[in-house]
Write a structure and sequence with these properties.
The protein is α+β, with helices and mostly antiparallel strands and about 90 residues long. It has 2 domains: about 40 residues; about 40 residues, no CATH class. It contains 2 helices and 3 strands, in the order H-H-E-E-E. The chain has a 3-stranded antiparallel beta sheet, with no helix packed on it. A hairpin with a 5-residue loop joins strand 1 and strand 2. Helix 1 packs across helix 2. The longest helix is centred in the N-terminal third of the chain and has 18 residues.
């Protein structure tokens, strides 16, 4: 098992902000917003590359936009990995 990151106070603040945004933007109840955020919290760590092979990195490196993610050169991105998932682990 590879640990990508231990959550810290900044992550908790980010999760709260994302939940508040979703609740306001989509008029969702708390359970739905919390579920969507927690189930997708690792999305920014998905490995991607552009279809022309000119750029590769993580989704979190891209400029946020509506629609299909594009590389800095404007090409469509292909996902190369799954998003890491939140988990409880015994240390």
């Amino acid at each position: 098992m590879k640990i990508i990151k231990h959550l810290n106070v900044t992550d908790i603040d980010n999760i709260v902000q994302l939940i508040e945004y979703r609740r306001a933007e989509y008029d969702e109840d708390l359970r739905m917003s919390l579920g969507v955020i927690l189930m997708n919290y690792g999305w920014r760590h998905v490995k991607v590359r552009c279809i022309n092979g000119e750029w590769a990195g993580e989704k979190g490196d891209l400029v946020p936009r509506d629609g299909v993610p594009l590389c800095p050169n404007g090409h469509v991105m292909v996902e190369l990995s799954d998003a890491p998932r939140l988990a409880l682990i015994e240390e």
